[in-house]
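Take the subject:
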Amino acid sequence: MITAKNYIDPIKDIGKELLNIEKPGRYVGGEYGIYNHDNKLLKMAIAFPDLYEIGMSNQAIKILYNNLNQIEDVSCDRVFAPAPDFEKLLIEKNLPLYTLDAGKPLFQLDILGVSLGYELGITGMLSILKSGWIPIKNTDRTKEHPIIIIGGPAVSNPLPFQNFADAVWVGEAEDAFFEFIKKVRDAKRSGAIRDDLLRLINAEDAIWVPGKKAKRHIDTNFAAPNQVIPALPVPSIKVIQDHGSVEIMRGCPNGCRFCHAGIWYRPARMKSIETIEKEVDTFVQSAGYREITLSSLSSGDFIGIEELIKLLNDKYKNRHISFQLPSLKVSSFSLPLIESISETRKSGLTFAIETPADAWQLSLNKEVSKENVISILKEAKKHGWKSAKFYFMIGLPVGNFKEGYEHNNEEEEIVNFLVDIYRNTNIQIHVNIGTFVPKPHTPYQWVAQIDEQVAHNKLKFIRDTLRPLGFKVSTHDPFISTIEGILSRGDERVGDIIEQAFSLGCRLDAWDEYFKRDIWKQVIEQHNTVISEILSERSLDVDLPWDSIISKTSRNFLKNEYINSLTSELTSSCLEECNHNCGICGRKENVVKNSIHAHKGYHLIENVSGVINESPSMIVRKKITYKIVFSYTKEHTAIFIPHLSLVELFSKAFIRADLPIQFTEGFNPLPRLDIAAPLSIGITALEEIATVELTNHIDSNIFIHKLNKVLPMDIQIKQALLIAIPEGSKKYSSPSLLWGYRYKTDEGVFDIKANEDKLFRETYLKNTDKSLLDLTRLTVLADNGIGAYTDYFTRYRELYSEKM
């Protein structure tokens, strides 16, 4: 029997050791917007098999987390892959990996769900299992272990992962997965044990296990209003994509033949403008984001996208909220649209060309005219744009690829295309070039993947030719693409390859600093015959490893699309009248369009009814400047929040609290916030000092009350003072008034000047039994103007009148 603590408090159990771990804030939780998990019958966690800063940028995790925690008697916590230094620490301390919110050891859960967004995450998943004291192979698990369910787009071919999962969910989670979890909860209420639950799980249509077919689940209610909005929790440390993400459309109408996501997420479904506006409101008001991405596979194809951006800009631009469209195809690219997006912050120009020749474009079912790109860039230069980014792929099945990818000269065509663009526009060009991986359930699932060495030679030619001409070129490692091809196109034999690589130390393979190239090469060489078979061309009539997955896009449609690709024949968009039944529509799943043009309230007009034309932050500043001086605590989990992350944390909290904060001027406006002194990670603080400038006066008690409601649990405002600074008076920032600090140790209380602080801490830490966790900073002290110190509130009262 496995024995361990029922609860792990990372601060108490490993707090001192966390000081030596990179980014310890990854492992302590405590963010704003987490759920309470006490007294729930079914205990789950959702895992993302990468580091915290990647996982907390993933919208699928937030969708699952928020929806599952809405279910009665179900607890769904979060866990992410440990970095190697933290994995090693857990082993040294004989502790299992635990959930972030409740500190529950993973092996004590009922269900661990893993969202596998990309194939290279599989070793991260195995590190989560092993660190959580869960056997990585399903055959080694017992009634004491949780059931492991994996899902996500990377398991559209689940065979390579079948040794590690107890079950695979195929397709979208909403809303069938949540109903499915209710069945599991009810079974547990009735006394079901692990084997009983597994039988129930395996009977589900969307569940795949070896020997069983599974039907991809499609969320037919995606566009329906009143869905759970996945805005929370808000990370307390910097993550990769620190912005709100509102999914305006799922699926894509274009049918690009190389795009796995475009086929896998059929049909295209669009939300209404009203629903999108409500979600944006939630991300701003409940989460505090000032940058919102309107996400989809092809946002430019959203019907009425320009009207939507106009509406949102009119409502939010005076509140310093900006909007981004990450996926615009060239044919939907209009400069007025880009200008609208950039009203608050100027975004970059990005062109996903993929392949340069016109006939090759048609093979991919795309149309990207070089002349159109040149025209857009010339016009963009007139409006201030100075650079553009281009995306290409090598190894696409275009031209005479059947004679060998080395013969189609795509690398030369890419170079010629870009040089011609530059000569005609004189704009700075950034180029990103990847290596194509033919994925399951697409028209290219039968083609061979480009050889790694051939890909390497092509990429080298592009780099060596373009960089001397001033182009900024980045390329994706073709060896990584080879591994991705093995994991996405393989069968059950790949499980042994994964296990071997993991046992030899492979982790977090999407990260350059963690990727172990030598180990992967060694493992691949040992399985060269199998891998050569996996990456080679396949006949249109042979069985494929992933045939047990019913994607609902018919095999005949994919075959016809592949044949159309060979003859460079276009297939029309799914938003047009359909003449190419792919097998999706006609059941209860259908393309869902919005009806923006039929709604009289959404035409392009100068002022849209109901929008906010003015916000407190844009009111013309009066002769008196108002500023709040406030003190706050930083305890328990918050001691691992770095200084810059703390500044961003307060910035979001001000928005959530709807406070009249004054912003800076310029390209990227920020709250006029200053913090008296940074605090080293690991030190508890009871009275840190900061000031923030306001556009209008506000009662200090209201400031405290509103802000405390929207701060993480371990940061709280203790005091606040509103001051009025007359026009012409000097504005004293809190750092400019700094005298020093008052510390408490087990030896007493010490008042330390700011310039002696470093020496004080170094002297204290010479005692090897001590760490920064043993220090408490009681308060930050202000210079009283005559060489001594006082508290900040007294000092500001002396400098300015207190506003009552």
In short: The two ends are 64 Å apart (CA to CA). The chain has a mean pLDDT of 93. The longest strand covers residues 684-694.
